[in-house]
Amino acid sequence: MARPALIVHGGAGAVPESERAGRQAAVERARDAGWATMGAGALAAAVAAVRHMEDEPLLNAGIGACLTTDGVCELDAGVMVGDSLRVGAAACLRDVRHPIDLAVAVMEDGRHVLLVADGASRFASEHGLEMADPSIFITDRKRQQLLEGADTVGAVARDADGHLAVAVSTGGRTGKLPGRVGDSPIAGAGFYADDRFGALCGTGLGEAFIRLGLARLAVVELQHGMDPAAVAQGAIDLLGTAMHAPGGVILIGREGSPRAAFNTPAMPWALAQ
Ligand code: ASP
Description:
The structure is a single chain. The chain has helices at 20-35, 42-53, 99-109, 117-126, 141-146, 206-212, 214-223, 228-243, and strands at 5-9, 75-81, 86-93, 114-116, 150-158, 164-173, 191-194, 198-204, 247-253, 259-262, 269-272. It is α+β, with helices and mostly antiparallel strands. The chain has one domain (5-272): (Glycosyl)asparaginase (Glutamine Phosphoribosylpyrophosphate, subunit 1, domain 1). The strands form two sheets. It has a seven-stranded mixed sheet with strand order 4-3-2-6-5-1-11. It has a four-stranded antiparallel sheet with strand order 7-8-9-10. The chain starts with a strand and ends with a strand. Aspartic acid (ASP) is lined by residues 11, 13, 149-152, 170, 172-173, 182-184, 190, 203-206. Aspartic acid binds next to strand 5, strand 6 and strand 8.
């Protein structure tokens, strides 16, 4: 019997001071939504937390996501379970109401790990997922244009059976080129889960996470017996020293308490255990 744990983050991006309390409250609501679902297992808990955050307009995922240079939202999401190393992800979505639902559907389908753009939308509608007019993601265009860098939302969970899961969803980076894909839907870069060692989710400059293969690297360090708190901090130190990049991570090991680390002024996060 393992000790259940959940950690949730709302992104390490630069946001106005005035939004910090609201973002923290949004993350705590997501933590509560995820924790309430823990009885259904780690995957259900992580997905419930992220799905909630896709509806929180102050967070950069789903409703309220940042804009591309064309002024639209292109959304990415990913999910991974640590018992079987199954992954599902989707990127460049403009009309899928809950990108995290599509990531789960891709994983459950099992043929592929990542679908993008029109093919991903077609898969979503064929699988009965809720579709949306692209305009619904744009809430306050001015705010979304002003977001510097951006954010991601993510959750990592461990259930009573010791299974680990990670879920992540993002609008990417403000002013990104149309078609740009960051680390968040890339297993091994923005997220990774392996029941034997631990699970991790990142936020920050996706290009740097991809170049470092950072999520997988952190799990390899857990495999080599490093302490989870040191692994989380080490990942952020590497991001800063090797890439001069901003970011944060949340992490849960096979046992012990969840950990968070970041090198930006703030990253709202919350845990339950
Ligand atoms: N990692 C996300 C991306 O690069 C954005 C972020 O977390 O700031 O798409």
